[in-house]
Structures are given as C-alpha cells and as structure tokens.
Amino acid sequence: MPAFAAAVFGFAKRVNERGIAVHYLPIVNDATRGEVEQIDQLAREINSNYYGRMTPQYVPRETLYASWNRGLALAQSHYFAPWNADDIRRAEAFIEGYQALDEGAELVDFDFTRVMLDRRFGLWARERRTDVPCLYDPTRFTRRNGLGPFFMASRALVQKLGPFDPRFRVAGDMEWASRAHSAARFQPGRANGGDFMVHGGNLSNTGGEMEEIEVDIIFLRRGDWKQLRPADPRALREAWESWGNSGGIALPADAADFLWGPEAEARWRRYRRERQQPASLRRLRLALASRGWFYSEEWAMAQRSRELQ
Fold first, then answer.
1. pLDDT in tens, 205-233
2. CA distances (Å), origin 195, targets 57, 97, 149, 237, 293
3. CB of 52 within 8 A of CB of 22?
4. CA angle, corner 285, sides to 224 and 199, nearest 5?
C-alpha cells in the first residue's frame, strides 16, 4: 500500500501538470483499518493539492470486475483506465492514451514491463524485468491476445459492449476484449504502460486452475474450438453449466468429449504437468515432439489447433 500510494500521488501530480482532470475512484474490498487509513490519507493529499479528485469506496469483497463496473457506474468521465493496486502505471503512457481517446479512439493498449519477484535467493527478492509487446491485436483473437494491464477505453465503448462480466474472477478483462475485438476503434500506444508485478499472488499470469477454466469459457462462448485447452474437467463443466453458458450454446460432441469426456482428466494432468516444467525443459520436449521422438501434450494441442483452422 505505501508503494501504491506513492505511485498514485506522483502520477496524479504529473497528469495534473498536463491539464488532465482525473477522478480517482479506489474501490477497496474488505479493507483493513490500516488500508482505510492509508487510502484516506492519499485522498486528502490528492484533493488538498488539487491533483484531481479522489473519492474512495469501501465495499465488501467482490470480484475484480464487479469493482470495475462499480467504478464505471460512480464516475462521470468519458474515459476510464483500471489500475490494480499491485501494478505501477506510467503517467506518460496515460497521457498518450487520453489524447488518443480524445481524438476518436475507443480502446488503447500498451506494451508493458513484466516484473517477476524471485525470492529463491534468500530474504531479498530479485527482480527480473521483461518487456512485453502490446497484447491486444485487432486482426485476431487468441489465448494470447487479451488486454494488457494498462489499457484505456471510452465510456462509449462500454455502452456499446456492455459492462464487464462480474461472474469472472480472473479473465473478465479478456472476456470483455473478446467482445471489443470486432467492435472497437483501436489504437496501440507507443509508450510503455507501466510495470506489471508478478509476485505469486496475482489473479492472472499464474497458470492457475480458475484462469484455465475461464479462458476456455471465453472461447466456448465464441465457438472457437481450436483455442480450447485442457482444464480440470469437473470444475470446467460445472462452471460452464452453472454460469458460463449464458447463451444456451450447444457444444459439438467432439468439443465436449475433449473437455470432459473419459480421457479429459488424464489429458489435463499431462498438459498441466508439462506447462509447469522449467522453460528449458519445455523447449526440449517440444523440439523432440516436433521430430516425432517424444510425446508432448502441449505439442499435441498446437497440432490440434492447426487441424481445426
């Protein structure tokens, strides 16, 4: 929280200097007393220095996308830019995105820096920084082409697409991006959007079970069978039948068999085991599988996607 508060204050000062009026709306879930004190202090500093306007909202625990929808409902701004508390936004990218939206774009996304906090080397975390190209691609939508953590969008686009689906816990931004794909006037940003901190407690980018399930649900809704990947069959089927299949979609028999048929659990366990291996071992396995010298579930999935195209 202290690092986040300092980042927001510096950001607000810089953006204010460029003449952009920002309404900061922290949606703080299930706040501790210490978190309330720090956010209230930040709001006093922002407001007293006229670096924009901050109005904290303290709410019970809810999904991230329910909080994003709450912020959109409470704000009156024409544009919005989500900022999760464990990341660091760069003011210059925000200013560029604001100008693009003001000139007619509806969606702006940026390159960003993934910061891995590796604690294997004692008490102090070692940072590994990797620059990641803009994820959103207006020409195609795959498992790799959702939204980056520092995207910006217009309220008009929300009115066109509808709000974020609050039933998603991890991949709601990707689900919204899937709706934006054929509808949004998109402009890629030139600047780096900020630092995305991967610390092990993130909702996304952890390869977690729920992320796998939710991404499959996105492509099931789109009828894009080639993008499906093995996930926990029981949990996936339960999620799909209880809330994921909101449009009454009838799955082809081969897609249902792939996801939760008799062989699905063994396939998922093999696939998950491979994906959790070190990068060097994964590359070796894929290289051997491409030559027919070794079986790889991950390679089999890539081949399946090609066959279904």
1. 555 799 999 999 999 999 999 999 999 99
2. 25, 16, 9, 35, 40
3. yes
4. 70
Residues forming beta bridges with residue 28, ordered by sequence position: 58
Q: What is the rounded CA–CA span in Å between residue 225 and residue 229?
A: 9
Count of Cβ atoms closer than 10 Å to residue 55 Cβ: 13
Q: Tell me, what's the pLDDT at 178? A: 96
Question: Does the pLDDT of residue 263 top 50, yes or no?
Answer: yes
pLDDT at 302 over 90: no
Handedness of CA 273, 207, 194, 28 (dihedral sign): negative
DSSP assignment of the chain, as one string?
-HHHHHHHHHHHHHHHHTT---EE--EEET--HHHHHHHHHHHHHHHHTTSSEE--EEE----HHHHHHHHHHH---SEE----TTSEE-HHHHHHHHHHHHTT-SEEEEEEEEEEEE-TTSSSPEEEEEEE-----TT---TT-S--TT-EEEHHHHHHH----TT-SSSHHHHHHHHHTTT--EEEEEEEEEEEEE-S--SSSS--HHHHHHHHHHHHHHT-GGG-----HHHHHHHIIIII-TT-PPPPHHHHHHHHSTTHHHHHHHHHHHHTS-HHHHHHHHHHHHTTSS--HHHHHHHHHHHH-
Please tell me the distance from the alpha carbon of residue 132 to that of residue 148, in angstroms, as a whole number.
9
Q: State the Cα–Cα distance between residues 173 and 149, nearest whole angstrom.
A: 9
- Looking at 50-54, 185-189, 249-253, 287-291, which range is the least confident one? 287-291
Taken as a whole, the chain contains a residue count of: 309
Structure confidence at residue 123 (pLDDT): 64
Looking at residues 26-38, what average pLDDT do you find? Answer: 96
> Do the beta carbons of residue 289 and residue 299 sit within 8 Å?
yes
Q: What is the pTM of this model?
A: 0.90
